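Consider the following input, taken from an annotated entry for Putative RNA-binding Zn-ribbon protein involved in translation (DUF1610 family) (Acidovorax soli).
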Amino acid sequence: MQLLTLSCANCSAPLEVRADLERFTCSYCGTAQIVERSGGVVCTRKLEAAINAVQRGTDRTAAELAMPRLTRELDELMSQRAQIVHRVQLRVEHAKTGRHTMAIIATFVVVILWAIFVSPIEPKSTLGEILKIVVFWIVAIGTPALVYRETKLPKIDLVQETEHLDEKIDRVREHIKANRRILDTLPT
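Applying the prediction step yields:
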């Protein structure tokens, strides 16, 4: 059986190990190690360091694979959010249109009432007729304004409407940042 003379990767103690061994534990410090062979050179490396190197490679591969999926997921969430915002804007615009329509209808009603009940001013109008016309104009201007003011727009809280999506978007962005850090710090 052929023996290799090596040094412990942790404590530098002299070691003699069989040539066919791949892993062993230092009898001096108890550190698990692997035997690496490359180009006729044989050396030891802490098993923990070898595992960490594999883990870094695995982390990088996982990050590379996750980035397209996370990007797609973020795009889908942003699209869903944009659709919700668009629907909310349509509801508000619809309500505003309804409010304007109500004010216009009120104006037409007042004009029709003018045509039916109020006669035009004659050259010799009495104070009562002038007062009637003044009251009419107050009503003519005030009624549509009152209808407009009293027709309420829906109370829409955009934050509440999009809150659940915003939370998901924030989580996906954090995952993207974490994966970007892995890709930026780990060697290829």
